[in-house]
Amino acid sequence: MTVEQTLRVTSIRSQNPRGIGGCIFSAKPIDDQGRVQDATSYIVVKATASVLGGSRVEPGQWWRVAGEPSRRLLEVNGYQIAETQIDASSAALLRPSGEHIVAFMADSPAFEGIGQVKARKLWEAFGESLYHHLDAGNVAELAKILKPDSAAQVIAAWVQHGDSCTLQWLQAQGFDLALGRKVLQFFGAETVQMLEEDPYRLLSFCATWRQADALARSHFGVAMDDPRRLQGAIEEACYRVFAAGHTSVLTSKLMDVLQSVLGSQTQTFRWRSLIQTAVSQGLSNGSFVVGPHGVQPLGAMVMERQIAQAVADRLTATVPALLHIDDVEELLLAYEKAEDIELNPQQWEAVRLAATKPFVLITGGAGVGKTTVLKALYNVYDRAGISVTQLALAGRAAKRMQEATGRPASTIANFLRNGQEGSFDERSVVIVDEASMVDIITMSRLCELLGPAPRLVLVGDPAQLMPVGPGLVLHALTQVPQVPVAQLTVVKRYGGAIAAAAAAIREGRWPELPADPEAAIGFIPCSARPLDSAEDAIPETVLHLYRQDPANTQILCARRNGPDGTKELNALFQAALTAEAKPVEVWDQRHEAYARVGFHLGDPVLCTRNLWDRGLQNGSLGVVVQVEDEPRMLTNENGEEAGLALAWVDWDDGVRRPIVEGMLDDLELGYAITVHKAQGSQWPRVIVPLTGHRLMDRTLVYTAVTRAQRQVLLVGDESAVKAAVEREPRAQSRQVALDLHIVALLR
């Protein structure tokens, strides 16, 4: 039986589910005046893209929906909850959400005191007529909803800052709130004019090509071969290249990317012959740059030039040696005696080089003594009166750096967050560890903050993982002959089978590994999804191996999805190891019951974001050691409420901290983590499930193997891993121009 209902959207469950458009949303039944008919009732609506007619569903909108209702049973904390779902056969937008004007008032300092709640009350009361009342200065009408002084304030602020035409235009064009807010903040009252001149300016505000192109073609009548469209397509291609990690693209490669933007040529639209003209015309709008290095997104070029200038300034600077060479050697001999070690000639040379040059790279594989060099070098800096700042990309790497050197270390993100420009001079040095993973965005911000004065030492291994973000820094710098490089090759941390296998993998040779779970390094072959029930599968094999020594073992994965991915393995491990343990729960107001959050007593957990106020960093690992019977209110040192503790975790820095509800989106199970999260860390025993896929790479295998102190077991498809190791690393196919910019500046 088909029903028809007027609904107000309360929340979005899934926008564009399965990537085919449409929306699944929750809504309250309302009458024609917008009054909620039953405060306890809600309806879930599933609507396809064709039913929605291209409109984007947003909270606050009113829709008239028709369709077949059905009842669904959900289980929450052991209780079955019934909800009504309508598969919409038709849907009509009755009233837009008003999110643009609500956000405009709530965000603007001129409307101080008029937050989201009051602004939304005005929209709910007046709808589109709110614009008329604001433009006409109808304080009396607004005073029916707000207090008279607040109503007067809104009118006064609107006179100075309001813009009905722009806000209504954004709403009429179906801009989502985030995009509309960016455009409005940048262009202000000129928004309509600027977008009418060139709708493809939207690409600069993270609009998708489909959004910008649809608006340009349908609303502004832009032709297929309009120069603005072709320039916009080139800009979009540059963004796609940048998102893939490249900072520069040759014209031949650009044409391939453009085909994914514009589609194949047709008899009526032969765009390839028009691109060269569009490229030259595009220089005038500043969205991309054409040079001897190919086409570069403007932002990528600016960042690479900034890094190149910082490097070139240091390479060409005339600075005296920190100490006389005899003093350096005296310090090194004293260090050897104090530490009861013997530095090899490469390590001696690395210290001498860093004591002489204001910019140096210290490179080498795992276990070659890079940290030993730093500790020796710091004695030289101390004697010369140079202050040392230690930085690493990941929280765990910074923690290990601090433990290894006995000096404070910070993540680069925290340093950038708290640092002040101009606070570093010639009497300071900044050491960046794990530099192979530093991208150009991070490095350019670091160079900007530091300025040209302090010395800079980058430490890392180009054979390890390349940056997740765009560009290459350490890899590119090693290609510049003028950059001083101290390369360490003698493995000191460990020997034996792990060292030999790691060295072979680093060089692109696949070592012969035993299928022995007791070996120092072994490869246990098994299938991802066995055809024969007698065969062992990767997940079950990894679980079996993990059970042999869980306290000292970490699972490292190449990816998040798939049978060898963190998601499936974490779910399997929890089901096998802690399913019967006490669950962590939070109160679900909608269902008035406790709901499980996905963690149990005894589960390892991983923090996936820097939570500075909680003392946690991206990559922090811990174990749930206590679960509250009921959430317990915490207070800070001033006696103020600080959130409800759901459970307690012993973190890897030795501190026990509470899990509060606001942290849940930033925590996940930590039985298995990605190799990227593990860079800079080590564990006694490491298990690495591996299959053939696009992320499989020599550097990934090498990084995973070198995280082990005592034993590493590889599990999965040996032929696929062997092929990945023997191929060139993916970093070599990443197109960048940083090295070329440095060479050009040094000329």
From TrEMBL:
Gene3D superfamilies found in the cross-reference section: 1.10.10.2220, 2.30.30.940, P-loop containing nucleotide triphosphate hydrolases
Annotated AAA+ ATPase domain ranges read 356-484
Q: What Pfam family does this protein match (any one)?
A: AAA_30
Q: Does the keyword Ligase apply?
A: no
GO-annotated biological processes: DNA recombination
Point out the signal peptide segment. Answer: none
The organism sits in which domain of life?
A: Bacteria
InterPro entries for the chain: AAA+_ATPase, Coronavir_polyprotein_1ab, P-loop_NTPase, RecD2-like_HHH, UvrD-like_helicase_C
Keyword line:
ATP-binding, Nucleotide-binding
Q: What's a GO cellular component annotated to this UniProt protein?
A: exodeoxyribonuclease V complex
Q: Which CDD domains match?
A: DEXSc_RecD-like, SF1_C_RecD
An annotated Gene Ontology molecular function? ATP binding
Transmembrane in keyword set = no
What name does UniProt use for this protein?
AAA family ATPase
- Organism, as annotated: Malikia spinosa
